[in-house]
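Lecture 7 notes: from sequence to structure.
We start with the chain below.
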Amino acid sequence: MKKVMIVGTGYGQLPLIDACKELGYYSIGVDFDLDSMGASLVDKFYNVDIKDILGVLNLARSENIDGIVTMQSDLPVPTIGMVNQELGLTGVTYQTAMVCSNKDKTRLSLQKHGVTQPKFLIVRSVEDAFSAAEKIGYPCIIKSPDSSGSRGVTKVNHSRDVPFAFKEACEYSRSGEILVEQFIEGIEIGAQTFSQEGECVYCLIHNDTLCENGYLVPNGHSYPFNQISIDELAVKKSIGQALKAVGLLDGPANIDLIVTPEGSVHIIEIGARVGATCLPELTSIYTGLSWEKLVIQNALGDKHTPQEIKGTACAAYVLEAPKDGILTDINYDYDLSDYSAYSPIIEVTAKIGDEVRIFRKGTDRVGRVVVKAETVEEAEKIALELKSKIELVVA
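Predicted structure tokens for the same chain:
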């Protein structure tokens, strides 16, 4: 039985654990949290921090694993890169993992290869952040370069907002460096890619929606891409350039882009892993492939034969708390049988009595709504309708 190490056993890794079971592989989970949702679901669990590169590497050696994977988080990617490098496994290299897990390094790599992206400056003090913001112009973005899940990212509209944004970014920066970036006006979109042996096999562009609370966090996605004003070929060309620039030529990638009204494509971020916010489920529905199984089998070195994309329309939105506080009640104002044609997946992960927060980062979600439909427009409409019928009462 092949052994697959899953780095992280929180909510975002549950699809990988399920896929391992379905494939008949032995799953080994590592996480610093003994009470993580997947700790009891893997075949063997180790209480090790996912950022402890040496600790995870030693475990991988002792267990003689055949592959190592993660999803929906950048934090364990360098660990995976080092294990791949030292054990000769298939997947992201350590060098590429470090570039993709540190947005400042991503920016420098894209700049070196002439890939279009926002103007940026790297700073270490609030005084330098003021200076950088003045040079770049307002509005701008101040962000932590080495966090995940949209943590520590703030849109700054005026110089008076710089101290708060800088402090917010510092809370999530492990390196002490902070990025100040040009805010690009345009349409934000995303892409899930899968590469194999240096070739991008799948490049799947999807629609994104962002929260309107100032934190620029994606709270929904949908397929197929329907922004007719955007040149898909130009987007895919930019994605191909970006993947080559960072060396991400084996395995999955999650890419965020903004397209300006003039049609200029700007690469915002590249993650060397599958995206979050229900993207694994949506991508599997849209393609007709199990994206989790694809990732696992790639990590095991199994050659994938490209398949025709099924193209099923689908949409998903996360459930969000209306304010910070304690969840006191959950009210459902719908009859699920009325929506059976849309194969809805509705899940509330927060429980009565839990402390919840408005959606500032990916881990603030309290549930999800996922639906299929005949068209992407219908899928988005139904998903939002169902979301609106779930009342989260917070005191």
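Points to note: The mean pLDDT is 94. The radius of gyration is 20 Å.
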